[in-house]
Amino acid sequence: MKYIHFYATKDDFLEIFNIVDAKKSLRYVLAGHSETKNPPYHIHGKDIPDLGRATSESSISCDTFLVYDSLNVIELIQLKPDGGRQRFYVGQRVNPETVAITLGGLWKNGVLISGRIATISETDGAQSLMKLFYSAIQKSFVKIRAFYVGPDAYKLMRSGHRLTQAEQSPPEYDLKE
To answer: Rounded to the nearest 5°, which phi and psi values hold at 25?
Structure first.
């Protein structure tokens, strides 16, 4: 399993993270550029700041977190200094036992941006995490075409909110039943 596309609100996320974090001790670290060798991480998915709020108008540019077993250590790629400052990169290539979760969430004007759980790795650890999230999502989300839709996200869709991958995308591409 390589990816799971979904629509979720904060309450939908809380349900998923309660299930996942109860079964396995995980860490959640913001992927991308870091100015420190030891980027901060969250012990529980529910502790991710602004959970349920999209950080961008497009799913592809929303914050992504690497999720990994708490027994593992995250490796970083050291980048060339920028203006004398050290820089590092947190990514899946050097952390094959991870999955990447792009949260999406509520944006503005009644728009719910899609999210995704994915991995580039075939390792047992990464595939185990994918199965763990997939199992939790299957418990309460409904599948509409290629997307899993959380209970609250489904209510939003039924009440006229846009479920889309990008706010600027034409409404005819929104997820509908």
So the answer is: -80, 110
Q: Which region, left, alpha or beta, applies to residue 88 given φ > 0 means left and ψ of -120 to 50 means alpha?
A: beta
Domain ranges within the chain, ordered by starting residue? 3-26+49-70+93-173
Q: Using an 8 Å Cβ cutoff, are 98 and 126 in contact?
A: yes
Per DSSP, the three-state class of 51 is coil
Instruction: For 15-29, give one letter per residue: b (16+ CB within 10 A) or e.
Output: bbbebbbeeeebbbb
- Which two three-digit tokens encode residue 13? 């996320």
- Per-residue model confidence as pLDDT tens digits over 87-129: 999 999 999 999 999 999 999 988 999 999 999 999 999 999 9
Quick one: which H or E segment has residue 162?
strand 162-164
Q: Which DSSP string do the residues of 1-26 spell out, in sequence order?
A: --EEEEE--HHHHHHHHHHHHHHS-E
Do 139 and 130 contact (CB within 8 A), yes or no? Answer: no
Q: pTM to 2 decimals?
A: 0.94
